[in-house]
């Protein structure tokens, strides 16, 4: 009887100590806030896009962020890591507001153009972060360059959407 009780107690302790870590489910949207760096809202199934977004943020930081805001920039992104999990491409919006980089990523929507789907998703998220000033051409150019440099570094195909 004591042996059985001891075995059960040890089993429970081992399960508590060695249980697998919690992984963000792919079915849930993901919000990432890196204070002072970037904020990202990723639609369900796009949490694997996070490494690309972190690379864009790093590239923009290396290029010395330009003060000013940008209008949202829209991209179609083909990332082999995301494609491996069912998506051929995803849609990405990137915006600088008050020195913080904001990303929104969503999957293409049936019956809607890529730009329309992304614009609707992006505007809903950016409504909480109003522009602080005028759009800056230097900030716009720096953001485009950071996205292209990150794409080259990670082997990701990025196409700007109008």
Structure description:
By secondary structure, the protein is an alpha+beta fold. It has one domain (28-161). Helices cover 40% and strands 22% of the residues. Strands 1-2-5-4-3-6 form a six-stranded mixed sheet, sandwiched between helices. Helix 2 (50-62) crosses helix 5 (137-154). It starts with a helix and ends with a strand. The model has no long low-confidence stretch (mean pLDDT 81).
Task: Indicate the overall shape.
Answer: elongated
Structural class computed from helices and strand pairing: alpha+beta
Order of helices and strands: HEEHEHEEHHE
Quote the beta fraction: 15-25%
- Unreliable residue stretches: none
Sheet with most strands: 6 strands, mixed
Separation, N- and C-terminal Cα atoms: 73 Å
Mean pLDDT: 81
Q: Strand arrangement, largest sheet?
A: 1-2-5-4-3-6
Task: Please give the count of helices.
Answer: 5
Percent helix range: 40-55%
Global Rg: 20 Å
The figure for the number of domains is 1
Strands, total number? 6
List its traits:
single chain; 162 residues; alpha+beta; six-stranded mixed sheet; 5 helices; 40% helix
């Amino acid at each position: 009887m004591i042996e059985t009780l001891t075995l059960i107690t040890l089993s429970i302790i081992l399960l508590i100590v060695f249980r697998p870590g919690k992984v963000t489910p792919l079915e849930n949207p993901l919000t990432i806030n890196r204070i002072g760096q970037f904020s990202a809202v990723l639609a369900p199934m796009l949490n694997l896009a996070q490494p690309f977004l972190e690379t864009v943020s790093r590239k923009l930081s290396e290029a010395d962020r330009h003060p000013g805001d940008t209008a949202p920039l829209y991209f179609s992104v083909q990332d082999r890591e995301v494609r491996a999990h069912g998506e051929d491409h995803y849609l990405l919006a990137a915006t600088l507001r008050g020195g913080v980089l904001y990303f929104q990523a969503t999957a293409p929507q049936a019956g809607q153009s890529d730009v329309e789907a992304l614009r609707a998703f992006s505007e809903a998220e950016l409504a909480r972060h109003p522009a602080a000033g005028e759009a800056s051409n230097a900030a716009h150019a720096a953001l485009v360059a950071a996205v292209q440099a990150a794409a080259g570094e990670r082997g990701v195909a990025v196409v700007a959407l109008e």
